[in-house]
Amino acid sequence: MTLTHRLSGLLLLAFCHSALSIPTAVPVGTTYYDPARAWNGFILFPGSDNQTHLIDMSGKEVHRWKYEGFPAWPINAGQAKGERGHVLVQLARREKLDEVASPGNGMVNASVAEVDWQGNVVWQYGSQENPVHQHHEMQRLANGNTLLLGAALRRIAGYHYDVIDNTLEEINPQGKKSGPGQWPIT
User: Fold this and answer.
1) Domain that holds residue 72
2) Is residue 151 part of a domain?
3) pLDDT by residue (tens digit) across 70-110?
C-alpha cells in the first residue's frame, strides 16, 4: 500500500469520525410555548408506540388510549351522549396481510372504533373477515354517521393488474354503508 493510499484512508477516517460526532439528539416535546400568543388547547396524535396520545400545550401527556390512530379523531361530546373524551381510532390491524399491504396505504387496517375515555369500545366497524382498510381520515358527521377514507384493490381499465384505489364510505351507527354514489370521488 502506497503512502498516498494510507493518507487518503486516514483522511477518510478522520472525515467519517467528525461526521459521526454531530449531535444526534433531537429536541422532543414542546420546545417553545408562549401562552399569550398561542391558542391554548390539546393535541391528539398517534404515537410510534401504536397508541393514541393527548398532550397539552406544554407537551405533557394528559391521556393515552391503547389503540393507534390513522389518524385518531376526537368526537364532539354532543355526538357521544354528552360524554367528553371519545375518539375514533384504529381498533385492529389485519392478521393476514395482502401482498400489497403497507402501513401507509390502509390495506393493513382491519377495523376502526369509537372508544371512550377509559378505552372501552362504544362502536366498531370492520373485522378480520371484512376489513375496513381505512387510512388517513375518518370523522364523525353531524348526522351521527362516520365518514371513512379507505383503500380497495381494483382492476382499472388499461391496467393488467389490480391497483390500490381510494374509497369514501359513510357508515351509520348500525354499521351499514350509506347508499352508493353519495360520496363519489372523481
Assistant:
1) 40-171
2) yes
3) 899 999 999 999 999 999 999 999 999 888 888 778 889 99
Q: How many domains does the chain have?
A: 1
User: Is 0.85 surpassed by the pTM of this model?
Assistant: no
For 13, list phi and psi in degrees, rounded to 5. Answer: -65, -45
User: C-alpha grid cell for residue 113?
Assistant: 372504533
- Say which residues have a Cβ less than 8 Å from residue 70's Cβ, sequence separation at least 6: 46, 90, 106, 109, 134, 135, 136
With respect to residue 20, please indicate whether it lies within any of the assigned structural domains.
no
pLDDT tens by residue, 103-117: 778 889 999 999 999
Residue 102: Cβ-neighbour burial (10 angstroms; 0-12, 13-18, 19+): exposed
Place of cell 373524551: 85
Question: Does the pLDDT at position 157 exceed 80?
Answer: yes
Distinct helix (H) and strand (E) counts, the chain? 1, 10
What is the spatial distance between Cα 137 and Cα 148, in angstroms, rounded to a whole number? 6
Q: Report which residue type is found at 3.
A: L
186 assigned to some structural domain: no
Does 109 reside within a domain?
yes
- pLDDT confidence band for 18 (50 / 70 / 90): very low
